[in-house]
Amino acid sequence: MTDPKQDAAATADNTIQQYDAIVIGAGMAGMYQIYKFQEAGLSVRAFETGSGVGGTWYWNRYPGCKFDSESYSYGYSFSEELLQEWNWKEHFSRQPDTERYLNLVADKFDIRKNIEFNSRIKSAKFDESQNRWLIETDAGIKASAKYLVTGVGPLSAHTMPNYKGMDNFKGGSWHTARWPKEKVDFTGKRVAVIGTGATGVQVIQEMVNMAEHLTVYQRNPNWCAPLNNGLITDQEQTDIKASYPEIFDKCKQTHGGFIHSPDMRSVFDVTPEERDALYEKLYAEKGFGIWVGSFYDTQMTEEANQSRTDFIANKIRGRINDPALAEKLIPKDHGFGTKRVPLETNYYEAYNQDNVDLVDLRETPIEEVTAKGIKTKAGELEFDYIIYATGFDPVTGALNRIDITGRNDLKLKDKWSDGPLTYLGLQSVGFPNFFTLVGPHNAATLCNIPRCIEQNVEWVTDLVGHMEKNDLKVVEPKPESEKSWTEEVLAAGEVSPFMKVNSWLSGINSNVPGKQERSFQVYAGGAPKYREYCDTESGKNYDGFSIS
Ligand code: NAP
Q: CA 427 to CA 546: how far, in whole Å?
């Protein structure tokens, strides 16, 4: 193991700190990886762009930001003491509470001391002569480590549109993932929100009660369903704490790591009354049940999904007073559940309020942002604030923003220019000792993410432990392992319902001009199957890797 102080003094260039491992990011993945490396006795340094821990839950502090997974299924599962100590307040925790939770974790497991905050890694290069990674931050800090692990998140590289005149706007404007830390008072203000994905939906339903007037700029509507959130009662708290093993066990068995599992009947095996009764029940229940807890085939074929899609469309019609407006909010180009379903609280009712307008960008596209507001062919509207809820450059976006160079000066971005090539979504040939937690081709993005984060981190820690125990220097996948895993990912993507529609998941994602090729970047075969692949690999002594 490396003693950073001693090695720093010993090195020729003593400004380069030496570690066993460097972790990029101190979100939920990075934090757990730091903890596991600490526990294993490795010297570890994490570099985090933000000034605090939490990643997604640090940056996304917009009003309404909260989990769409049940809180008690989302927290870390690795510490019984933590599980018993922490009380989730709501079934779906809001960002401020989640950020508090993650700060508690950082303190309780003493990981803060190993994080360099306000530090963005701009480059990482593998030094073949030393078998070590050298990183450099924006501020010129350099550090070297045997292992480099990224925990940069699949949805952290936020994207802004490129409308003419955006810089001219005199009011306040920002992306939801860069919401100001200081409280913004929207009382008496005119606010525009652009984007109606899961983020836009959460902001809109809060903003309608904060601003004097809200204008929503929608390009394509999304299918949304009720979150049905609520406070956790004392009795529920007691029950939750007593049943954590069952909760996590359930999550382990389901395709997406959620506590909801599909009804194993076919939608065609029940009467229309029975079918609608299940939809009604799920619509009234908390969380993703209506999406992933419905008849199993509703997530498999368009025909099976049609009745659920019709059911949700009618629910939307029933919740919006103006029928023409309701039609604008109902997607017509894809079925319910074929994109990530935003969960909502009175989202549709927001459009019944007098202080809300919807601008349909398919009818009247934005021509420019002016000093005072937004101009479409229907005219100019004036605003005090413009909020961009315009999404992310997904999955590979945050990795591509770092200049990562492997063997023979190969750039990761170049290697992946036609789509990622990985083994198990965790390593790529030519990039030894480099691991991508929740990386492309990994099941974790399509997962109740902390459940899959824990699996990723534990698997990587075991492999690193194997390397250290056997005094091994370098690990990278065999080319044939990478080829077969990449084929497996693409094959699983081909049959996924997500692949047939346009969204950040299918690669046809208009958030990112120039990055619109239909390619499934995440493993859609399900978390249990993915875990099985990983376990098989470690069980055969990492035979799919070249280790020396
Ligand atoms: P998103 O789903 O990609 O939505 C971006 C929105 O911005 C879309 O409505 C898109 O319209 C619109 N947009 C993008 N560029 C635009 C432009 N130039 N002009 C006008 N509109 C534009 O992003 P997101 O809402 O941030 O959500 C991303 C993912 O984050 C979610 O799918 C989810 O996985 C995660 N998330 C999770 C939670 C949670 O757990 N509670 C909350 C929020 C987000 P088009 O549809 O027409 O492209």
A: 11
